Amino acid sequence: MESNILIKGVLLHDSKQDILIKGNRIEKIGVDIECSGATLIDGKGKAAIPGFVNMHTHAAMTLMRGIGEDMTLMDWLYNKIWPTEQKLDDELVYWGTKLACLEMLKTGTTCFNDQYWNLDAAVKATSEMGMRSVQPYVILDLGDNAKWEKIKRECTEAWERSREWGVLNKFSVGIHAPYSVSEHMLEWGSDFAKERDLLLHIHISETEKENLESIEKHGLTPTAYLDEIGLLNSKVIAAHCLWIDDKDMQILADRNVKVVHNINSNLKIASGYKFRYKEFKDAGLVVTLGTDGCASSNNLDMLETMKTTALVQKGWRGDPRAMPMDELLNLATKNGGISLGLEIGELKEGSLADISLIDMDNYAFTPNIDFYANLIYSANSSCVDTVICDGKVLMQNRYVNGEEDILWNVNKLFKKLL
Amino acid sequence: MESNILIKGVLLHDSKQDILIKGNRIEKIGVDIECSGATLIDGKGKAAIPGFVNMHTHAAMTLMRGIGEDMTLMDWLYNKIWPTEQKLDDELVYWGTKLACLEMLKTGTTCFNDQYWNLDAAVKATSEMGMRSVQPYVILDLGDNAKWEKIKRECTEAWERSREWGVLNKFSVGIHAPYSVSEHMLEWGSDFAKERDLLLHIHISETEKENLESIEKHGLTPTAYLDEIGLLNSKVIAAHCLWIDDKDMQILADRNVKVVHNINSNLKIASGYKFRYKEFKDAGLVVTLGTDGCASSNNLDMLETMKTTALVQKGWRGDPRAMPMDELLNLATKNGGISLGLEIGELKEGSLADISLIDMDNYAFTPNIDFYANLIYSANSSCVDTVICDGKVLMQNRYVNGEEDILWNVNKLFKKLL
Question: What is the mean pLDDT of residues A248-270?
C-alpha cells in the first residue's frame, strides 16, 4: 500500500494551503484537505517550495573539498585534481556521493545532474539516499584512440545495467568537453544518446582559452564546432556557456540546448562571470543553475548559488532589475525539471512530490515582508527544515537518517586521496 | 569578582589549544591550562576564530528587510527607503537594532560600526545585547542651512550623553556623504571629531554618478574634494570607495583613511563591483568589510560577505589568487580592530575576548582538509555555535537569551513602517 502525506497549513506562494501527497505525486493542493491514515506534517511557521534541481555537479568531489585553494586553474587541475582522481575507487566514490546527497538534502536539493567516475558506486549511493538523479557514463579520451573500444564497451554495458536502476536514477551520456574528447568519440557518444533518446551532458565554453583554441584548431567556436558535427539538440545539457557570442547563442537556441550556469565555480577559479542571462532568455533558451563540484566551488548549496547568480547579474549588468526573483527561482527548480524531462520543479497537482519546507521562525524571515526576498537574500540553507523526494520524507527537523555514518566514513577514507 | 572562562581543547589555527579568559581579556592561550572556578566550555569538534567586525551597517534597517526588491537605486531610495524612514521612532529603532544584534551574534559578529537614526535607542539596544559598537550622531542636511543649528546642538548633546554609554559603545561622528551634506557641515563635523579625537564615518564614492556630479560641482572627485576641505585623516572610516582612481588612492593612503568594502550591497543595487583591493593593499591602506544595511543587502552576515568578496575579486580580476584566505580573514576581523582603535580581531594573549566558536561536526567541514577553506567557501553562518564578546558568553548552542522576544516585537511593530 502506498503511503500518503498531508502537509497542513503551509505557506505556498501567498497563502496557507494543505498539500496532499499520494504515493510519489502531489494529489491535491487546497484548504482543509482531509485524508484519514495519512502521515501529518504541521506546516505552521513553514513555507513549501519545490526541491532544487542542481543541474551540474560532480557529486563525489565532496571528497576533495578544500584540496586546492587560491590556485590558478592549470596548477589546480594538473597538480591537484587529476593526480587525486587517479586514487579514486568505488568505495571512495560511494561515500563521496553519499556525502554529496547528504549535503544536497540539507540545502534543499532533491534532484541532481551528475558527471563523475565510478558510475555504479554513485548510483548505489544516490539510490540509498532516496534522491532523484541523472547519472552519466563519462566519455573522456584526451585524444587517445587506444581508449575508444574500452569506452564504447563500458558505456554500452553501463547503459544496459541502468535498466535495473529503478525509477529515481536516469542514465545519460556524459561527454567531458569538445577540447578533451576526440571527434570520433563526440560523434559516437552523440549517436549513442540519440539512438536511445538519452540526455547528453557536456561542458561548453567554460573558459575563453577553450574558445580561442577551438577557433585555432577547427576555425569554429566550441558551440559552432559541436553543431557542425551534429551533436547539439534538445536533449543536450551544456554546462557553463560563459563565453558565448551572438552566433553561438543563435545555434544554441535553434537546437534548443539546455544551459547550466555555475557562477560560484566560475568566479572561484576565475573562468569568467559575464554570463549572458538576458540574451539567453531573450533567445528563448531554458537556463538552469548548478553548483559544479566541491573541488572548484566547495559546496553544493543551490540557495547560495541562486543568491550569487542574482547579485552578479545585477552587478555586471549595472541593473538591479537584471534578475527578478520569480525568474531566479525558476532557474533553480522548474527549468531543471524541463531540462531533465521530469515532472518536478513546480508545486502543483499531478507533479512528482519533490518538496522542501522552509522554517521561517528565525531572524532571516523577520520581518517577513517578502518571503522570496528573505529566502534568497537574507536566509541561508540552514532554513531548510524538511525535504520530501518522490513522496518520501528524506529529512525532517534537519535530520537525515544515517548522517553520522556518512561523516564518519568520509572522515576515515578521504586520507587515501591526500 | 570578575568571571573567568576556560575553553578547553579548541582548534586554534593549526592545533588544539586551551583559551583562558579573565574578565574581558584573553589571559592565556596554551595546552593544559588549569583555572579553578572558571566556567568551562568544551572545545571538542569546535574551532575558535575572532568575532567578526562589521565595519559598515545601518543596523535598524533590519526592519526594512525585503521592502524594495529588484528596483533601481533612485526608485528604491525615493519611493521606498526615504518615505519609510520618516515613520521611524525610538521604539522601532530600538527593536530593529536588537534584531540586528541578534542576527550579528547568530552569524559570528561581535562588533559593528553603525550609522543610523535615533542614536539613544540604538545604543540602549546594543548595550542590552552586550555587543561592542561604534555609534554615530548622523549629520545629513541635504544642503538646508536651516538645519545647521539643530544638528550642531543635537550632535554636541549626544556626544555629552555618550560619556554615560559604558565601555562597549563608542561615539563617532557620522557624516552621510559629501553629496548630501553642505560644505559648512562637512567642516563642522570634521572639526568636531578632530577636537575630541573621534572616529568619523562617511560614505565615499559608492556610485559613479556621485563622482561625476562631484567633478561637475567642485571640479574634484569626492575624495579630492574632502581632502581639500581637510576632512580626511586616519580616524576617518570611508564606506564603499568603489569608484577610486589612482589619484584618489594616493590621497586615501597619504591620509591613512580606513576603507570599508560592502560587496553584497554594491552588487545588489548595482553600484559597481570592481573594488580595487589589490591597489588599496599595495598602497598600504587598511581595508575592511561591511554588510551595509538590510534594506540594500538583506542580511548582516559577515561570513557570506567574506565569501562574496573573495569570489568577486577572483572573478573580476580573472585571477584565483586575487584574495588569499588569510588576507580575507584579516579584512573581516583584525583590520576592523585597527580601524576602530580596539584590541579586537586577533586571538592572542592580552586582546579583548571577542571570540566565536565554530561547530565543525557537519557536512560543510567534512572532510576538513583546510579549515579556513571550509569556513569561508563551504559552510554558512549556521556553523557559528558560541559567541563571546568582552568576556561574556552571548550565544551558546546557537541560542541567544531573549531571542523569541525580539522576533515577537519586530513582527508586531514593523507594520507601522509599511
Answer: 97
Cβ contacts of A292 on chain B, cutoff 8 Å: none
Label each residue of B186-244 as H, E or C: HHHHHHHHHHHCCEEEEEECCCHHHHHHHHHHHCCCHHHHHHHCCCCCCCEEEEECCCC
Rounded CA-CA distance A112/A300 in Å is 10
Identify the pLDDT of residue B1: 52
Q: Is the distance from CB of A16 to CB of A46 less than 8 angstroms?
A: no
Q: What is the pLDDT of residues A118-166, one digit of tens each?
A: 999 999 999 999 999 999 999 999 999 999 999 999 999 999 999 999 9
- CA of A28 vs chain B CAs: smallest distance (Å): 31
Q: Quote the CA–CA distance of B11 and B329 in Å, as a whole number.
A: 16
Q: Which of B69, B365, B417 to mutate to test the interface with A (most CBs of A within 10 A)?
A: B69
> What is this model's ipTM?
0.97
pLDDT, one tens digit per residue, over A274-304 is 999 999 999 999 999 999 999 989 999 999 9
Nearest CA-CA partner of A147 in A123, A172, A176, A119? A176
pLDDT in tens, B55-87: 999 999 999 999 989 888 788 888 889 899 999
Q: What is the pLDDT of residues A98-108, one digit of tens each?
A: 999 999 999 99
Domain ranges of chain A: 4-50+352-401, 52-340
Q: Around A10, how many Cα atoms within 13 Å sit in the side-chain half-sphere?
A: 25
Short-list A253, A258, A218, A251, CA closest to A237: A258
Amino acid type, B19: I
- Say what the pTM is: 0.98
**Secondary structure of residue A16 in the 3-state scheme:** strand
CATH number of A4-50+352-401: 2.30.40.10
Say yes or no: B373 contacts chain A, CB-CB below 8 A.
yes
Which CATH superfamily includes the segment(s) A52-340?
Answer: Metal-dependent hydrolases (3.20.20.140)
> Quick check: B263 and B293 in contact, CB under 8 A?
no
Say how many C-beta atoms besides its own lie within 10 A of residue A89's C-beta: 12
**How close are the terminal C-alpha atoms of chain B, in Å?**
48
CB < 8 Å from B in window 299-338 of A = 299, 301, 304, 308, 310-312, 314-325
Q: Which residues of A touch B315 (CB under 8 A)?
A: 266-268, 270, 272-273, 312
pLDDT tens per residue across span A212-233: 999 999 999 999 999 999 999 9
Contacts of B95 in chain A (CB under 8 A): none
DSSP-derived 3-state class of residue A287: strand
Closest Cβ opposite residue A369 in set B67, B71, B103: B67
In angstroms, the CA B240 to CA B283 distance is 17
Query: B319 vs A363: CB contact, 8 Å cut-off?
Result: no
Q: A326 to chain B: nearest residue by CA? A: B70
Q: Name the grid cell of B133.
A: 559598537
Among residues of chain A, what percentage have pLDDT more than 90? 95
- For the cut 70, the answer to whether the pLDDT of residue A1 exceeds it is no
